Amino acid sequence: MRDPDLQAVEMERQTRRTLIGLWFFLSLGLVFTTAGVQKFLAGDATRTDPLWWAAWTVEPMFAGLLIVILNFEAVILSYGLDPDHEWWYRLKKVLLASTLAMNVIPQITPLLRGRWQEFNLGSAAVHAIIRVIVYGIAEVIPVIQAKRREIMLLIYETADHADDTEEPEPVPAPVMPAIRRAPRLPAPILQKVKDARSQALANGREFTAADIQRVAKLSADIAEQVAAEFTTHNGHAFT
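The chain above was modelled as a monomer; its predicted structure follows.
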């Protein structure tokens, strides 16, 4: 199974490319419509009239507000939250409808005034279509962010489920060390060892291998085993 982190990074990269493309073409559409809005607002004003220059700022202002709102909406949707406020959606629609009206009205004005020869159907259609496309992109960008989050959660949820279903590797049984038992002692030596133990306990000290070696000629290793046997089992293994 592929690493979920790699899948998430790949998904993030693809989403970023898609959003960059949408923002780029959205900006191009807004730049194109700026000229139409300026013409509608400036009317017969000349370049010497401040209104002619001020009219160029209206469409960027509307577009800037729209882009800021969409950008923030995309951010909060990436965290699984929704604006969930009626004025949020109303403001988006007002901004888009306003720019649509300012783009289309100048194109159909000749029709309203009866000057058919001045009407350009292609120009009117392009101005209207661009606004519809811009509106569609404005609605799609938040959806892309929301779906990206759903896919991210699905990637990690699937990975966690796969980890839970995998059988754990068998744990090898621990190897118990062999326990060395003290050899059986002849009865005379055993009695001497018991007497030495009784004397050590009577003196209030621990019974050790040194006590055994004082009364029996045993190696240090065997004496340690005998002392441990007496300490653990009270010497029952020798009886």
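The longest helix spans residues 121-165.
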